Amino acid sequence: MMKKTLGWCALALAAAMVGPVTVRAQGNFEGGPIPGTRTGGSRNMKVMSHIPLGRNNATADIDIEQELSRPYVYVARRLVPSGFDVISVKDPSRASVIYSWRIENAELHRGAGSLNPMLVKSKGRYYLTTAYQFQAGGPDNDLGAIVHDVTSLPDTTRIKEVARIREPNYAGGFHETFAYKHSSGAPLLVTTTSGPWANLYDIDKVAAGGDPAGWLVGRIPRPDSTNSLFKGYHDFYVAYDPANKRDVFYGAGLIGYFVFDITDLKDPKLITSITGGAGMYIAHTFVVEPTGRYALAEMEYQYAPVRVYDLKPPAPAAGAAQGGGPPNISRPIGAWIPQWNSLPHNIEMRWPYAFVTSYVDGFYAINMMDPTNPYTVGYYYTCDCPNQTGVDAQGRSLGAGQVGGQYAGAWGTDIRNADGLIVVSDMMTGFWALKMEGFDGWNGHQWGVPNISSAQDWDNGPDGAPKPQKVS
Q1: Please, what are the averages of pLDDT over each run of 10 residues along the chain (472 residues)?
Q2: 21, 42 in Cβ contact below 8 A?
Q3: What count of other Cβ atoms lies within 10 Å of the Cβ of residue 312?
Q4: Whole-structure pTM value
Q5: More exposed terminus of the chain, fewer Cβ within 10 Å: N or C?
Q6: Among residues 158, 200, 179, which one has the least CA distance to residue 61?
Q7: Which residues, listed in sequence order, are joined to residue 180 by a DSSP beta bridge?
Q8: Are 174 and 145 in contact (CB under 8 A)?
């Protein structure tokens, strides 16, 4: 009871402390500052470190290790040259890049390149998996991910490449990945593809080498793939459902969201879907809170708010026949957006907080205690970027049909549960380490919910899952 009371006090403090500050706390991206843009953030958000990471749009997603004894952050470096950086946050106030890796013949590659780093721990070793998307016309069009053994850190001389995961039948690489400790004990890397499904790879099998065909242990179909030119998922989240004793996949397709039971990796079963709602197009991000009931869903176009859905199966209409397949949900119960012309992007859930990167609007923390009424409790502008349409990230006018200035700024975020350290990647300004006053760590049990988030318990498996049987 005392822990919950302290948590409520922290929420009240965070809400009370929100307010703009005018101190310029970051460097500007190439070309210098743009007049009229925003800097700083709410009074309860403190910058611990900032590392510029090179030219415009070169920084993609970010991942932080959860063990305090391994204070490492991984940042994907996209475009040319493509690869990843390792950042030490042993002292969060003095973060530093300690290792950089770039793909060979970088100038020959075409496309986005490195997009998404994910750390997987298995059998006492630590593997960094990095997703890649290279276009035809250059090498590695079929490359999906590269796996590096980073167990030796902080000794960077012994980091070594373990394997390259390719998808030759559906070239174009992996846009997103998610690392998940399955209830069976398997350390999984879940990946997007350009085919009508997501792939499931067992990292133990990948690390062991052998026939790459044996690395793939399952596929999750996308039900709406026949209705669009874009066949695969864009983004997803995977979590254990203790109440129903099942592993659940939450996937964002083009025109909606789909929830699958993947306890049996060979036989995924559709649980429910979210389709047919107003303004549903280009489904992008899909996460849930620890009980699996309330979901946050983002659509990748300007002015679209983060929608909140209740995934509890709706009751059938009076007189309606039972059955007819999995239920579909079409109406949200709540919504949130930084301001009317924003474009939220990626989301990390640590109930009752959701942490959101919103491109040119920077980083936000929102309170989800009442899912029907989420509200902002903290923010930080990581980029001196204008929030407007019709201009690019440098403030130059764009012609008809060109992507607007929303596609700059904060890309991804991750949270270290042990101490509440927040890390953010910004396409323009690089790496940020932040602390939010009153948020000094997260454990779901302190909030009366399962201790489940994107952070995996690699040693013990999902909270609430039965221990897997050892096979002799």
Answers
A1: 39 38 32 55 96 84 98 96 97 98 97 96 97 96 98 98 95 96 98 94 96 96 70 91 97 91 97 91 93 95 93 61 70 94 94 96 96 97 74 44 63 98 95 97 97 97 84 41
A2: yes
A3: 12
A4: 0.88
A5: C
A6: 179
A7: 188
A8: yes
